[in-house]
Fold each of these.
Amino acid sequence: MDIKTYLSAKKFIVDKTLDKLVPCAKMFPASVHEAMRYSLFAGGKRVRPILSIAAAEALGAGTSGLLPLAGSLELIHTYSLIHDDLPAMDDDDFRRGRPTCHKVYGEAIAILAGDGLLNLAFEVLSDPRRTKAVPANRLIAIIKEISAASGVLGMVGGQVVDMESEGKEIDFPTLEYIHTHKTGALIRASVRVGAIYAKASEKRLKALTRYGELAGLAFQIVDDILDITGKREEIGKDVGSDLKKGKRTFPSFYGLEESRLRANEVAEKAVHSLRDFDRKADPLRELAKYIVNRVN
């Protein structure tokens, strides 16, 4: 299959969904809605919602009822980027090739835009009009999954340890904690959301969970590599920021070549975790390869 065609088609569907979920830029109070949309439609790849869709497809499920849930994953991901970029955190000036939200709208509106996206995600998840295709027990499980991945046991916890580790000598288990929580938790949850939506058996849910864990780790290893080798016009932000901030990364532990090997090994393990799935899981297999071969 052509993964680029698949990604383009799914991104189009996800973007249409997001456009319907988020208030228009002119709705009062316009400043925060404009800031939310500025960051949300800045050209993201939509990897998380697409992983959710691909997981459901791997189980043979239709995905029209999944789209609002998948959209909520992107709302949460974008909120996390807005907040990560703030001066109090990673202090980045560019994201996806554009000035970061706080550079355009100021810190206060950027914080509130992130808050707005996070809360909108849970409004969507709990809206019966948008989630009527999902039985209540599965919807509750999905909300719990996303809440945990977004909170102190997931992204928030990972961000805390990441910030507290700047400029310090940390051990490898601490680095793994940062990667599997700050980045990996929401990727893992995205795959599980699609699986839960599609009523996966316990065995298949376990296999897809393993795939999500490995895909998330591979994603972050490649991010670490791109922070050294990437070009600003391709990755959309300044390169070398981890080094400037004194952050320990996979390349700082293992070097670039070994890190590339490890990323490929992890992606291969992700594909292997789908060995009992038929060709309907090919998008997931190709997504694992795409994650390690991407340039942004």
Amino acid sequence: MTMENVLAICMGLGLAAACGFRVFVPMLVMSIAVHSGHLNVMPGMNWIGSAPALVTLSLATALEIGGYYIPWLDHFLDTVATPAAIVAGTIVTASMVTDMSPYLRWTMAAIAGGGVAGAVQGTTVLARGVSLATTGGLGNPLIATLELGGSVFASLAAIIVPFVALALVVGVMGFLALRAVRNRVPVSV
């Protein structure tokens, strides 16, 4: 595996993690980077840098961001966003890897990219649930702002410093795994 492939995988997984926070923000950042010539994607995925895709992703991003600040709509969006984040994470990961067989690329993208996006999205759903239970939903705008910041930061980091983005993804996933193990209730027979 070449260094370019490793960087591409790091970028893809960083963008996939960002899709777990917000589905459209990483795709918009990716679209801007491809459109401006700062990012190359696999053949067949160049459409993401087209002007129509840029306009569509901009509108979708604005609607998604706004929707998370409407109290009843944020929970509905979480329901829809979970499978959408997994699909988006798979697509952004696969689009970054150019020198790999299609079977291996899409398998890796579905397992790693979709898995990372799903894990991050699951964490945000839990955070929103805790916010609803403890604040009656009044804390949800804070959660929405933190998720948006996380998505923007992870998207930019994935493109600018992919190894750092991957390290952050691994660190967060490790933290969540350790926390889940520590909080596990022992099963009594």
Amino acid sequence: MELVNRMMGAFDELKDSLPKPVLAGFRRMGQDEKMERLQRVPLLEECTNRQLREIARIAEVQELAAGSVLTRVGEPGEDFFLIVDGAARVEVPGGKTGRLAPGEFFGEMSLLDGGPRSAAVTAETPIRVLVIKRRHFATLLREAPALTLKICATLARRVRDLEKRGSADYLD
């Protein structure tokens, strides 16, 4: 019996260290609203309604308390986040910080390469996010090659835009 009590105590400690869900304050989010929110993400802006429906199907709604850590610098990136409600603080090594509001997103490169996180993101307020796991997204891309092409084209356009802005900044 003592062993069981110790195991339960260890479980309680682990449970206490996990992000706390926020159970009140947010209304339920349906598939149509997920699609509407996802359509605003530049990476997905070229998707058809059918493709957005499939992405919405794999997107999970998570509600977390203020102070919850969403990403840590250097950890593998396995999730994409779209902020639905609330705000998050971004901290990049070197002291730069920023704030993310509803409609903003992060982790899009993780969907493709799973590389290490370049920033820490923490919920400033209670927050609701749509989360897409890399493993689900990879399966979706294998099943929908047209979606893969659209996302690659969108990424290429974004890289070109960043290069233009970087060149212009350099010349100023």
